[in-house]
Amino acid sequence: MEQEAYRHVPYDIEVEQALLGAILVDNNVLERVISLLKPDELYDPMHQRVYQSMVMTWERGSVITPLTLHAAMKADPGLVEVGGHTYLSGLAQAAPALANVRDLARILHDLAVRRSLIRIGEDMVNTGFEAPLDKTPAQQIEEAEKALYQVAENSRYGEGALDFAAALQAVAESAERAQRLGGAISGVTSGFTDLDKAISGLQKSDLLILAGRPGMGKTSLATNIAFNAAVRYMHDTRDGMDTPRGAPVVFFSLEMAAQQLAARILSEQAEIEMWQIRTGKFSDDQWGKFVHAMQNISELPLYIDDTGGISIAQIAARSRRLKREKKIGLIVIDYLQLIAPSRRAENRVQELTEVTKGLKTLAKELDVPVLALSQLSRAVENRDDKRPMLSDLRESGSIEQDADVVMFIYREEYYLKTREPDAGDIDAHSKWLAKCEAAHGRAELIIEKHRHGATRALDLQFDERYTRFSDLAKDGVVPPR
Prior knowledge:
alpha/beta; DNAb Helicase, Chain A; Rossmann fold; 2 domains; nine-stranded mixed β-sheet; 20 helices; 9 strands; 51% helix; 11% strand; elongated
């Protein structure tokens, strides 16, 4: 208890004085620290005001000296109390020779971060003890996560604008990576050859929307993409590749339980139908395939969060944590319309606008692709041609605007099954059978918006038994799985 009584918040007045003195001696050093240290990160309130006044004087193009600084702050009661001009002159005279000001600024910034963490901890403890009725534990957790994220963001303060040479270097590195990977993709692989060629893989900081009507298989396709990226990363890292084509994946499943999602993946890999897995009705040979598939994918870097009604703020907080702990390189969300906004708006369009803007911001912040699924409006069902269009997106304005890539999944076979003509009309029925045969097991992936390239439609194979999409065989050549 005695040790607790003597604890105080971390700060260092002498380092603050050394930094301020160094700026007074050589104004140019302010350029090197202004991007690292904000005024409110100094501990002494008077030092905060002195530093702020220095920044304002420098931005006006004026020289910072004890005299000009005192003239600007002569009414400051804190400065008057410590001696005014005499104190400022003392700072300049006591400044260390050849001070490494960036190190001094980093020390003060780190101390400020520690003080912020202490305040957050105190708030968490006090709120936990008080247990206010208007604040549930879930809300307290969300507020704590937001506060911690704010501290993390402040720690990145001052990264500022990227000069053009650095931006060009990033482009060159991306092109070099694509070249090392065979010239096909520079982003995270989707596992589908034509899709990877069309969009060069799932690109960092992109928001990709995959939309479709119920029954089209958008969840299955998203699950396949997530699995392909994770398994490719696992294999490439085991093989010692410097630039793995895949990535660890987090899958936010707002509609389906994690167990159901895992069962889908097992069904695909073991080639055992879902109803057999649910009922346990499979042969000894199938049981062997089932166990073998489980062993093969048990270490897959795929993380499933099936929290229902999760908010965009919670998705962001959990993604940041997984990015830090698991190095995730792809975020998949099923689906947009089930994400709760952080605050209620006047209408659903405004709420969804907040969600899509939040996802795009998250993609840029974490520098990973975000693949979000979306429902389509019923307008599709009222047309003869059921192929989706951008206007079919529910509350489409913000989705279409914020997304870098918009894709639609369409299976004509699904609609043909519901339009069987009367068996007595032999001609019509035979034509219908021919269409069903041509459409059987085929799906169309329509890239309707592509900010970085052309739009096009791709053909995929769909195996309804195992809810599995794959590359479509062309010219008699069967693509590898």
